[in-house]
Design brief:
- It contains four helices and eight strands, in the order ββααβββαβαββ.
- With about 200 residues, it is of the alpha+beta class.
- The chain has one domain: Gcn5-related N-acetyltransferase (GNAT) (Aminopeptidase, 3-Layer(aba) Sandwich).
Length: about 200
């Protein structure tokens, strides 16, 4: 299977503007991925079905399966958006795709779209989703991408709609979140994209 080409996105809010490179993550990136994911889970508990408290104890190596290294047909991977850091590139965003492992393997689920707060609003999430769709189209026999998104996150829902996803359902009270603000429920919109 062909390697995912790097995609460059200009992060406008940073001074001076720094380009972001989007590429597949590998085993050496898992420490940075875990740090990014832990921060996203902490900052946005309503956006993820996983919770920060239980996930922070996971090791970086526990995410190895998400890289899809043993997926012969493709369709399972993590992508990362990187900007130049002081010494090494800094992972500022990520998205994943997990292919269904059952015999009828024509669907995959888009998971974990996240961008660090200092880099939101610059098209990095949009570029990650576009790169995810492009990579999914390279996977043998993959026909549909599914996702679940917090229904009240209008900006994120719109990002997915602009990428071609359509809503097919709503899961009311999908998440129960108890934190300093009290207990609340979050609905999840179900969306799909036929490739």
């Amino acid at each position: 299977m062909a390697e995912t080409p790097a995609v460059f996105v200009r992060a406008r809010r940073l001074a001076p503007a720094r380009p972001a490179t989007i590429r597949k993550l590998g085993p050496a990136d898992l420490g940075a991925y875990k740090s990014l994911r832990d921060e996203a889970l902490r900052l946005h508990p309503e956006a993820f079905t996983s919770d920060h408290q239980t996930q922070r104890t996971r090791t970086p190596e526990s995410y190895l399966g998400r890289l899809g290294l043993n997926e012969p047909l493709g369709g399972s991977f993590l992508l990362g958006a990187f900007v130049d850091g002081p010494q090494v590139p800094q992972l500022i965003g990520s998205v994943g795709l997990e292919r269904e492992t059952k015999l009828k393997r024509h669907t995959a689920t888009l998971i974990g779209l996240m961008v660090l707060p200092a880099h939101t609003g610059h098209g990095i999430g949009r570029a990650l989703v576009a790169a995810c769709i492009a990579e999914a189209r390279r996977a043998q026999g993959l026909e549909t991408i599914l996702l679940s998104v917090t229904a009240s996150s209008a900006r994120v829902v719109q990002l997915y709609e602009q990428a071609g996803f359509t809503r097919y359902g709503l899961l009311p009270r999908a998440l129960r979140i108890a934190d300093a603000r009290g207990e609340r429920y979050v609905d999840k919109a179900q969306m799909l994209l036929n490739l």
